[in-house]
Amino acid sequence: MTRHRVRPEEKAAGLDPPYEGGVLDARLAPVLEDLRERSLYRVRRVVDGAHAVRMRVDGRDCINFCSNDYLGLASDPRVAEAARAGFARVGTGSSGSALISGFNAEHRALEEELADFLGRPRALLFSTGWATNMGVLKALLGRGDVIVADELNHASLIDGARASGAEYRRIAHADLGACEHELQQSALDRRFALLVTDGVFSMDGDVADLPALAQLARRSSAALMVDDAHGFGVLGARGRGTAELLGEEPEVLVATLGKSLGCAGGFVAGSQVLIEYLIQRARTWVFSTAPPPAMAAAARAALRIVRQEPELRARLHENIERFVGGAQQRGLPVERRAVATPIQPLIVHDDARALVLSRELMSRGFWVAAIRPPTVPRGTARLRITLSAAHEPEQIDGLLDALAESLRALP
C-alpha cells in the first residue's frame, strides 16, 4: 500500500493527508475501466426538488419517463402532508426493531389496511421490498428444499433464492413446460418446492400467467409466491394487482410501497400462520430497525387514494394506450400486449446505442434511462419507458416524436 508522508506544512496547518487507495483499489480500478469501455458504466443523476413528472435533473428541466411512480403519488400533496403530520406526531425514526421497541401504531394500522385491501388475513411490513424478498425466501426455504424461479425475476428474488440454501432451479422466461417438469421432479423426490415469479416483470412489462402457474403448483403440492411490486395499485378493478386481474391468489404475495404508492417500504401478505412464522424467522425483519412511522402514515394516505380514486388507474391506462398506439403509428419497436402495463421497453440491443439514445432524449428534455446488462440479458439493451397517471397527453406525444427523430438519427 502506498503511504502518504505528511509534510511539515500539512501538519502545521492541521490538514488531513489525502487518502491513497492500496491493494483493493488496484484490484477494482481495472474492472471500472472495463465497464467504461463496454458502455456498461453507471452514473447517478441528481434530482433537485420533488420526484415527479416535471423534474430538475443535473441542473436542467426535463419530463420524467423512467420512474415507477405509476399513479403520481410520490409528489401528491396529500401524501406529503400525511408524512409531515406523522413526523410532527411521532418523530423521525422508530428507534429499534419491531420486536424490541420499534413497532408503532402507524405500522400496525398500515398492516391491517393492506391486509384488508388485498383480502388477506394478515400483512407484515418490511423496511424495503428487497428486504421483504430476502427475508421471506430465507425463512421459508432451506437445504433439501427446491425453488423454481423464472429467469427474469427481480434481483432480490434471485439473491434471496441463492441465500436460502435451497436448490435453485432457474427456468426460461414464461416456460410453463420447464416449470411443470421441475415441479413434478420435486414432487417425485418428495421435496418441498416453492414456485416464485414476478407478477409484472420489471424490465419487460409482461405479466406472469398466474392461473397456469398456480395450477402447476397445486398439481405438485408446491407453494406459489408472487412479487407484485409493479402490479400492486396498478392492475385489477380495485388496484389489488396481478392476482386480482387474473383471478388467482398466491399463498405468498409480496409488494412494495415505493412504486404505485409513492412512499417506501415493502410487505408480504398471506395467512395468519405465514405471517406469525415470518415474525419469528424472517431475519431481515427481526434484525432490522422498523421503518419510520411517519412513512407508514404516508403510505396509509396513499392507499386511501388508491381505494377512493379509481380514476387514477383509468388515466394511467389511457396514457399507456396513447403511448403504445402512438408508437405503432410512428413505426417504433414497441409491442402491444394482452395486458397493458406502465412498463414499455424499447429494445435497441446494443449497449452503446442505448446510451446514445438516452443522452439524445435528455438533450431534448426527456429523461428515459438506458438499461443494460446485467440488469437485462446481453444483447437486449433498451430504453425502459414508464408511464404515469400524472403524464399529460402532450408530454407523451412529445416523447414519441423525440424517440422517432432520435432513432432515425442514430448511426
Offer a concise description of the structure:
The protein has 411 residues and is of the alpha/beta class.
What is the rounded Rg?
A: 23 Å
**Residue share in β-strands:** 15-25%
Mean pLDDT: 95
In total, how many beta strands?
13
CATH architecture name of the largest domain:
3-Layer(aba) Sandwich
The number of distinct helices, counting runs of at least 4 residues, comes to 16
Largest sheet: 7 strands, mixed
User: Which range best describes the helical content: under 10%, 10-25%, 25-40%, 40-55%, 55-70% or over 70%?
Assistant: 40-55%
C-alpha termini separation: 45 Å
| Low-confidence regions | none
Structure characterization notes:
The chain has 411 residues and is α/β, with parallel strands linked by helices. It has two domains: 44-70 and 310-409, Aspartate Aminotransferase, domain 1, CATH 3.90.1150; 75-308, Aspartate Aminotransferase, domain 2, CATH 3.40.640.10. It is 45% helix and 15% strand. It is built from 16 helices and 13 strands. The chain has a seven-stranded mixed β-sheet with strand order 3-9-8-7-6-4-5, with helices on both faces. A three-stranded mixed β-sheet has the order 1-2-11. The model has no long low-confidence stretch (mean pLDDT 95).
